[in-house]
Prior knowledge:
The protein is an alpha+beta fold. Helix content is 33%, strand content 25%. It has helices at residues 15-23, 34-42, 65-75, 88-93; strands at 2-10, 45-46, 52-58, 76-84. It has a 4-stranded antiparallel sheet with strand order 2-3-1-4. It is globular, with a radius of gyration of 12 Å.
Amino acid sequence: MAYYLVSALPKAAKLEELAARLARDEFIHMQPFGRALTGALRGARLRADGIAVWEEEDYCRPPLAEERAAVLDTYFDNLKVESISRGMGWHQISDLPRLFPELPAA
């Protein structure tokens, strides 16, 4: 398993829809990535430049291929990944405001 620090530009017009879908746990049963994706997006942070960042575990090559096809490309542009050690991404972004503060962290 690999861990990535993900950064992407949220599509502003789609964020309300994404928040609602996360609140309803719509992605949680997608196999094999639903639980990890839901938790990662619920914990996503927002940089001052408007870029969303989060840590995500992944098994795909290329990274996040299934997640992008099923969910991420609908809600984000310019997705980038950086290989990290587990937990280091969350540590790096912990002081940033949450992208979805209204949602409980998973």
